[in-house]
């Protein structure tokens, strides 16, 4: 009778006599398992540092400096490169290097004594991946921040998201590592080192120095370092956007450069429409105008909130010195 009463009680409660012996199951779900991130979670895992350190650079990592650095609102930058053992950089096109699978590159950004971020690029089988790492306040490591960070470490410096990285790096992958940046004008002898270590598939033939003197040379170099990543044939620009700003290996005369050939008196397609460079008229030159803006129409479009006043003044001087009658 007691057994019957227990069964009746359980039925009233909506249970079976055996429910207490069966563990509850998780509700079904159709959500897929998240894919793992294509980059290490911390900077210390990327291979930049010797094991057990976040200060000592690994022995097989190359520290290099570029001749014409990208303006990043006055931040100080250190650059590093690693090539897999037994590989070379394909330099058959001296103006557009192709890096082997497994190539890794890093760039530290700091303001004063504050280390803000390190940007990381890695060449994989199906292309490049990139992400920035934000340094911890205690300096023990840096953590991947794929969504970016505004005003990092209580400064005005913004760490870019992976989407913003892609905007600039999508066509070429690794920017700043090339013959002009590492050659004759570089403060280090990285191009010579790469050549002597047989890390280039072919030696670079021709001058790697930016031609010209004074404001002409400075303008050519600055635009190469800051603008040629996008203003290039290999970037995803509409055919109508013909402005090209890279310096090619072997160019000895500024007049033969892409800047002179594609910018001077050339019509533009950005509002307000006009010409890219109007000789003797900086204010009428869209290149000069957009360099001096920090708005929707600014150039470069990302990575800077402060106008590079020194470079802006140099470009002004260069445009003022151009002959107003061009052949």
Give a verbal description of the structure.
The chain is an alpha+beta fold. The chain has helices at residues 2-12, 162-169, 179-182, 190-196, 214-227, 258-263, 286-291, 309-320, and strands at 62-64, 76-82, 104-111, 114-124, 127-135, 142-144. The chain has 2 domains: 43-182, no CATH class; 210-320, no CATH class. The chain has 8 helices and 6 strands. It has a 6-stranded antiparallel beta sheet with strand order 1-2-3-4-5-6, with helices on one face. Helix 5 (214-227) packs across helix 8 (309-320).
**Helix-and-strand structural type:** alpha+beta
Unreliable segments of 5+ consecutive residues: 1-25
Radius of gyration: 27 Å
Number of strands: 6
* N-to-C span: 113 Å
How are the strands ordered across the major sheet?
1-2-3-4-5-6
Q: What would the principal axes of the Cα set say about the shape?
A: globular
Task: Describe the structure concisely.
It contains 8 helices and 6 strands, in the order H-E-E-E-E-E-E-H-H-H-H-H-H-H. The chain is an alpha+beta fold and 327 residues long.
Q: What is the strand and helix layout of this fold?
A:
Layout: H1 2-12, E1 62-64, E2 76-82, E3 104-111, E4 114-124, E5 127-135, E6 142-144, H2 162-169, H3 179-182, H4 190-196, H5 214-227, H6 258-263, H7 286-291, H8 309-320
Antiparallel strand pairs: 1-2, 2-3, 3-4, 4-5, 5-6
Helix pairs in contact: 5-8
């Amino acid at each position: 009778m007691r057994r019957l009463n227990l069964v009746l009680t359980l039925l009233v409660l909506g249970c079976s006599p055996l429910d207490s012996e069966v563990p509850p199951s998780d509700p079904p779900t159709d959500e897929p398992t998240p894919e793992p991130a294509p980059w290490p979670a911390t900077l210390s895992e990327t291979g930049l540092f010797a094991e057990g350190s976040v200060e000592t650079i690994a022995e097989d990592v190359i520290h290099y400096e570029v001749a014409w650095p990208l303006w990043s609102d006055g931040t100080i930058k250190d650059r590093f490169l690693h090539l897999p053992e037994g590989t070379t950089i394909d330099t058959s096109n001296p103006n557009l290097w192709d890096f082997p699978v497994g190539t890794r590159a890093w760039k530290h950004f700091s303001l004063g004594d504050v280390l803000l971020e390190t940007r990381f690029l890695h060449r994989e089988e199906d292309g490049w991946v990139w992400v920035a790492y934000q340094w911890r306040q205690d300096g023990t490591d840096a953590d991947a921040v794929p969504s970016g960070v505004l005003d990092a470490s209580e400064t005005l410096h913004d760490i870019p998201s992976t989407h913003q990285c892609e905007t600039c790096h999508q066509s070429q992958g690794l920017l700043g590592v090339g013959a002009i940046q590492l050659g004759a004008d570089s403060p280090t002898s990285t191009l010579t080192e790469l050549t002597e270590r047989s890390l280039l598939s072919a030696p670079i033939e021709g001058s790697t120095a930016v031609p010209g003197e004074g404001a002409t040379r400075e303008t050519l170099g600055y635009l190469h370092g800051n603008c040629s990543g996008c203003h290039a044939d290999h970037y995803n620009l509409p055919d109508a956007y013909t402005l090209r700003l890279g310096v090619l290996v072997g160019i000895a005369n500024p007049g033969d450069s892409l800047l002179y050939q594609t910018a001077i008196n050339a019509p533009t397609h950005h509002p307000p429409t006009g010409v890219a460079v109007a000789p003797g008229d900086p204010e009428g030159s869209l290149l000069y105008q957009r360099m001096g803006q920090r708005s929707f129409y600014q150039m470069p479009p990302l990575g800077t909130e402060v106008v590079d006043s020194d470079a802006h003044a140099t470009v002004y001087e260069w445009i003022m010195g151009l002959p107003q009658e061009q052949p």
